[in-house]
Amino acid sequence: MIRYKTPEEIETLRKCGQINARILKEVSKKIKPGVKTSDLDAYAERLLDEAGAISAFLGYTPKDVKKPYPAVLCVSINEEVVHGIPSEEKVLKEGDIVTIDLGVSLDGLITDHAITLPVGKSDESSMKLIRATQEAINAGISTLKIGGHIGDFGAAVLEIAKKYNLSIAEDLSGHGVGYDVHEEPFVPNAAKAGEGPELKEGMVIAVEPMFTLGKGAVKCLSDGYTYVTKDKSRAAHFEHTIAFTKKGIEILTRV
Question: Residue 243: which pLDDT band, with cuts at 50, 70 and 90?
């Protein structure tokens, strides 16, 4: 069941989204060769505390996962598509690409935001992947409107994937968000325009295209969280939280 948010709740989500966007922007400035991913996580936690917000990820336990997520950030490197767990052993290297994904909770309401960046100077194919995935999220968002459908987003994302001869990560998608990290509706990255639930005032969704340089098949590692490409090809991921209001759509996680 889709859970619609009130104007007052969307106002709280608006504040939450701005905290989310500012923190991710600040963390992105720390990305460089030699940085431990655990240090990025600690920095994000400090910024959350300063902002009077908390992590939506730390301690979160998805369905069918045995243990709670142990960090504030998800930090996914190269073939890691989503939900990479930061640690002292995972250190950024020149030429890597890295996705930082942060969920923020403010007054019981949640937003979700992710970006992919190069570490130092990366190769051209990786940069094309990042640019195309960012283009895809922008193209998908441009289709969203009250009275439209969830499939409109996925149709636009699929067109960008075809344009650049990239694959869409399989079995991973966007989702509703707000009261919980993951809510209905399911927001696929490959769909037909006009299909799926109708977009209505009060909906809040997290849209998140994920492209790979190789094939789209993914698998989850033994940690229960980290999804990687089966063929070890690099992946990129961008995510924004979108609210549907009387005035139209609003990107809550854009600075």
Answer: very high
Task: Kindly write down the DSSP assignment for every residue of the chain, as one continuous string.
Answer: -B-PPPHHHHHHHHHHHHHHHHHHHHHHTT--TT-BHHHHHHHHHHHHHHHT-EESSTT---TT-SS----SEEEEETTEEE-PPP-SS-B--TT-EEEEEEEEEETTEEEEEEEEEESSS--HHHHHHHHHHHHHHHHHHHT--TT-BHHHHHHHHHHHHHHTT-EEPTT--EEE-SSSSSEEEEE-SS--TT-SSBP-TT-EEEE--EEESS---EEE-TTSS-EEETT---EEE-BEEEEEETTEEEETT--
Enumerate the domain spans of the chain: 7-251
Q: What is the pLDDT of residue 63?
A: 85
CATH second-level architecture of 7-251?
Answer: Alpha-Beta Complex (3.90)
